Amino acid sequence: MNPNDIEAIRLIIRRAKRWDAFFGLLGILSLMVGILTLVALFVDMAVDGFARIDYKFLTNFPSRRAEDAGILSAWVGTVLVMIVTVVAAVPLGVAAGVYLEEYAPKNWVTDIIEINVNNLAGVPSIVYGLLALGLFVHFFKFGESILSAGMALALLILPVVIVATRESIRAIPQMIREGSYACGATTWQTVKDHILPYSSAGILTGVIIGMARAIGETAPVITIGALTFIAFLPPAPFTGDPPTGPFDWLFAPFTVMPIQMFNWTSRPEAAFLVNAAAAGLVLVVMTVAMNALAIWIRYRLRKNILW
Amino acid sequence: MTTTISDRLRKKSSRHRKERFIEFILFGAALISVFTTAAIVFILIKESVVFFQSVPITDFLFDTQWTPLFDDAHFGIIVLLSGTITSSMVALAIAIPLGTIIAIYLSEFAPFRVREAVKPFLELLEGVPTIVYGYFALVFVTPLLQKIYPDLPGFNLLSAGLVMGVMIIPYVASLSEDAMKAVPMSLREGSYAMGATRLQTALRVVMPAATSGIASAYILATSRAVGETMVVAVAAGMQPNLTFNPLEPGATITSYIVQVAMGDLPHGSIGYQTIFAAGLTLFLLTLAFNLIGYYMRKKFREVY
Questions:
Q1: Interface test with A, best of B229, B265, B269, B292 (most A CBs within 10 A)
Q2: Which of A297, B71, B129, B155 has an alpha carbon within 20 to 30 A of A235's alpha carbon?
Q3: By the 8 A CB rule, do B84 and B224 touch?
Q4: Domain count of chain B?
């Protein structure tokens, strides 16, 4: 071969390799944009808000004076709404996931259900708010209550729970089912004694991620008509006199953490922005901790696969 | 000779009935998703029909003012759409290039350990509540942008769009990466055997083979940007403004719904109905994106 040709080919290779290295760098830089945003967001809020978080902040009601205001009614509201959400979304989501994986025949009904689950995962959260406003608040007359909000958020995270359930069920090898059927078990016995126990950790990850999402959701809860200024607590669950007393809390007006933060963010006074930062910090720590827990469980799960 | 059947076997019919009953209940749970969609469509259309009885649909589509709560009421959805389109465009201008580069990097370049270390961070980025991103856009990104461009108003579509873009990077990245991962190894090996570099393989073999999957990622990301609410509600100002200039404040369909819901509108008033008409527009828009995205995704799954 002509030495000039070899030189030319080497040049082409060098150039191609340089582009290759350049793109590798570009990839790392792009990742950094995401990660640095996460860090900046966290640090910015911690600097503004950390000093504001103390015992009084957690145990005071909101107030017109920024330095007296706290998040008591907000976090209590969040906890109560989450109870409703989990009680509604987990059984329904797991049941639907089990049906789609273990029972559903391949026909058009199943296709319609699958398309719906997929589509619902992409419906903007505020549309769920409008649904809840029309359906739960005005049609079923639940009012602007903890129950309406909890149900709206339950519908919102239902696709998350369903998809997580299906994925962890699909990871169970077919031989487990065959073994169970070979011993004479029915479908339900197989599901109850094998499928659900083996997929429970995976389902749990999905539930935690769904809850983290529901805790941070603002738009649907605002749409329902949650109040932004609540200086009292709903009645404690399961304490009043039967028949309706124990469930009074379901119909109480309420506020939640993200709405409290939104309210403080939209005020012009700078002092309230500090409160917003503090509330945001609590919110981020909560959701990030839940997501991290879910990621950790999944990581452990992948390391300790039994089959 | 008489055959005796043991008691345990004789219970078979009741066992069968119980099985069918359980299957029926599980089927009911799965049907909830269909009911939810039906309920969304029903509620949105029911309230919108009342709205369109007092506002002609041509006004809704072609009027260039949106002042539903004034005495001189105008209902031009274009005004809200312009805010939605502008903020989504800014978001996609960030999320699509960065998301695609990250997807290529994670799927074709990154060593296994880097990938394992980085993916949790991307998931955390996705898990941060949107209201927190809104706060971040308002008190961190906007002042930062004002240092570069001092005339920028305190509320603007640009900083909301930028933050929204970063927010949906993980979404674009993970969906595109899925599509690239689905491309069979033999195609890559063929390309490497011809002496191509990783970048050449990624751009000329893997990406073309994963086109429909990557396109579906972009479409689903668009749907998400269009439906995003709290970032624009906090950082973009909520004044209806017919503009495609991201440096101005503006309201989107979503932030208008929030604004109305924050106030105290009586059930059944025209202002109350506007949020359902706006919601219907939003729902149809995202439904179209989601269905296109869903079928394109299904297509790439079928190919490999």
A1: B229
A2: B129
A3: no
A4: 1
Question: What DSSP state is assigned to residue B139?
Answer: I
**CATH classification of the domain holding B281:** 1.10.3720.10
Nearest alpha carbon to residue B135 among A230, A40, A211:
A40
Of the partner residues B44, B105, B121, the one whose CB lies closest to the CB of residue A27:
B105
Domain assignment present for residue B46? The answer is no
Range of the domain at B150: 77-303
Decide if B261 contacts A148 (C-beta within 8 A).
Answer: no
The answer to whether the Cβ–Cβ distance between A155 and B36 falls below 8 Å is yes
Residues B222 and B234: their CA atoms lie apart, in Å, by 20
Return the residue of B nearest to A128 by Cα.
Answer: B40
Chain A partners of B226 at a C-beta cutoff of 8 Å?
Answer: 124
Per-residue pLDDT tens digits for B125-158: 888 999 999 999 999 999 999 999 888 888 999 9
- Scanning every residue of chain A, which has its alpha carbon at the shortest distance from the alpha carbon of B105? A27
- Whether B274 is in a domain gets the answer yes
Quick check: is B161 in a domain?
yes
Whether residues B129 and A258 touch (CB distance < 8 A) is answered with yes
Question: Tokens 């708010």, residue?
Answer: A129
Spatial separation of the C-alpha atoms in residues A260 and B230, rounded to whole Å: 13
- Residues of B in Cβ contact (< 8 Å) with A131: 36, 39-40, 43-44
The tokens for B16 are: 């069968």
- Cis peptide leading into residue A243 (ω within 30°): yes
Nearest 5°: phi and psi at B250? -170, 165
Q: A291: Cβ–Cβ under 8 A, 6 or more apart, which residues?
A: A208, A209, A212, B123, B124, B127
Cα dihedral value B275, B276, B282, B284, nearest 10: -170
pTM for the full predicted model? 0.89
B27 assigned to some structural domain: no
Q: Which of residues 68-97 of B touch A (CB under 8 A)?
A: none
pLDDT tens-digit series, residues A27-71: 999 999 988 998 999 998 898 888 888 888 888 888 777 777 888
Compute the nearest-CA separation of A248 from chain B (Å): 24
